[in-house]
User: Which sequence fits this backbone?
């Protein structure tokens, strides 16, 4: 595993003169954030050894290296999901490759369904912590042991200092930022109404099919994680409308601009 990561990191290092310190994982709908990056260098995932296969429909696959203000960043545009049948080791490989390259902070963005009745579609939520209901974990099995502790603690899965900075920026910019617990499920089905009630009872505020594997892999390697999720819809059984994932994506696009503003200012302070 370590050899594979070294090869991937070497390939990325060939393209950037100054190594990035902050990594950002952008979901598929968040591509417009890339316009804000200066001195861009783009590498398709297909050119980076061992990066996951980008042939999944609707998943862009490119790494963008560049500058945002005074910070060197590496943006993973396109995330892979376990529900596509991609092994978790592959899903988290890009995060591990960026860690090997030397980043110290990782920003995870995502889409999720609102479970907290006080939330609305289009809200942004700062992830304070997560509950893993995916039924698996990226550290299961041998290869991960080469990289970090066997039983890493997850006491601060979402770094408090980074979270406070994001909160501070949101307050200053008058951006409404909810806070709460992200419950990760495997998907690809949306939840049943009974599952949504269970998730609320156990303390979940949103539910989504991503983020948890990446947060675990990043914590395992000692990265500080900031998690912000877009509540694209209310989870099943809360509102009576039955929305397609196309409609979810459309709503996410509107909030992308605000999330971009929040991320830019927060990254300057990291
Ligand atoms: N459930 C799970 N994942 C999601 C949802 C949802 O309602 N919305 C966006 N991602």
Assistant:
């Amino acid at each position: 595993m370590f050899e594979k990561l070294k090869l991937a990191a070497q390939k990325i290092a060939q393209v950037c003169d100054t190594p990035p310190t902050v990594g950002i994982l952008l979901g598929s709908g968040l591509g417009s954030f890339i316009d804000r990056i200066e001195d861009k260098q783009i590498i398709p995932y297909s050119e980076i050894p061992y990066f996951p296969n980008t042939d999944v429909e609707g998943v862009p696959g490119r790494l963008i290296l560049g500058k945002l203000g005074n910070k060197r960043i590496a943006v993973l545009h396109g995330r892979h999901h376990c529900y596509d049948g991609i092994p978790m080791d592959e899903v988290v490989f890009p995060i591990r490759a960026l860690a090997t390259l030397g980043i110290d902070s990782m920003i995870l963005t995502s889409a999720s369904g609102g479970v907290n009745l006080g939330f609305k579609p289009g809200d942004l939520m700062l992830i304070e912590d997560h509950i893993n209901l995916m039924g698996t974990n990226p550290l299961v099995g041998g290869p991960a042991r080469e990289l970090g502790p066997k039983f890493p603690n997850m006491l601060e899965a979402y770094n408090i200092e980074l979270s406070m900075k994001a909160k501070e920026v949101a307050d200053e910019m008058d951006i409404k930022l909810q806070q709460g617990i992200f419950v990760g499920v495997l998907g690809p089905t949306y939840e049943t109404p009974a599952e949504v009630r269970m998730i609320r009872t156990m303390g979940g505020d949103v539910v989504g099919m991503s983020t948890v594997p990446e947060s675990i892999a990043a914590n395992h390697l000692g990265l500080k994680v900031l998690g912000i999720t877009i509540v694209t819809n209310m989870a099943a059984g809360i509102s009576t409308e039955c929305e397609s994932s196309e409609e979810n994506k459309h709503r996410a696009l509107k909030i992308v601009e605000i999330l971009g503003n929040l991320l830019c200012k927060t990254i300057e302070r990291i």
